Prior knowledge:
The chain contains 1 helix and 8 strands; from the N terminus they run E-E-E-E-E-H-E-E-E. By secondary structure, the protein is mostly beta strands. It has one domain (9-99). A hairpin with a 6-residue loop joins strand 6 and strand 7 (87-91). The radius of gyration is 13 Å and the shape is globular.
Amino acid sequence: MRVRAPQPFKIALCGPEGPYELSFHRYSDWDGYLDVTIGPDTYRWQVERADEENGELSISGMTSPDTANIWGDWLWFQLTPSGEDPRIEYWGDQLVRTDRPNGEPN
């Protein structure tokens, strides 16, 4: 179910390119963006939805065009920042990968 955008937060995750940080910024009750720092570079990803399912918050949207330089494509993301399994999933036409704070694989 769609919910209002959460309060600002930060989360550190680890993927194939190493550790990176996501900082959520809210600019209205329903909208926000992520500043994503991968290595020395920071990207801005627009958050298109906030949802809550079974008590678990997730936010989702598209990566920026700049991330295509790293990953070869734009991807849809779904970030679940808290709970028992904090993670971000990246999707093309199917699940591409899942990154977690400790770098464990899917």
